[in-house]
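Forum > Structural Biology > Help requests

Title: Can anyone predict the 3D structure of YfhH family protein?

Hi all, first post here. I have the sequence for YfhH family protein but no way to get a structure on my laptop. I'd be grateful if someone could post the structure tokens.
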Amino acid sequence: MSTNYRYSDYSIEQLRAEIGKLKEKAQKAEQLGNISEVAVNERKMQVALAYTLNPKDFKAEKIYTLKTDPGYTFKINYINGVFAWGHRINLLNEMNEQEEAIPISLLGDAVKDK
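Reply #1:
Sure, ran it for you. Structure tokens for YfhH family protein below:
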């Protein structure tokens, strides 16, 4: 059994090193045209990055921009660990019915109330 298998057990330095390795793997996979491997490594990178953030900086019922999807915002229902559970909202202000969990590292700035 590995002692540092879960990102929650990693130190900030270990997380940063892991993010660097994953970024390198994603770049190599992209050069080789392996798109699915790129996506897997980028997703792992986002999860590792989430562990470098403070979940308390994100609030339920608030709406945040999405760093990787400028066509959507994200309304948080609740935070569980480093994942925000909630719904995407499109540019027409239509909320997706399906609740999803995303790493908090994908969340940008809180949207100002209109």
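The chain has two helices and five strands. Helices lie at 12-31, 35-50.
Shout if anything looks off.
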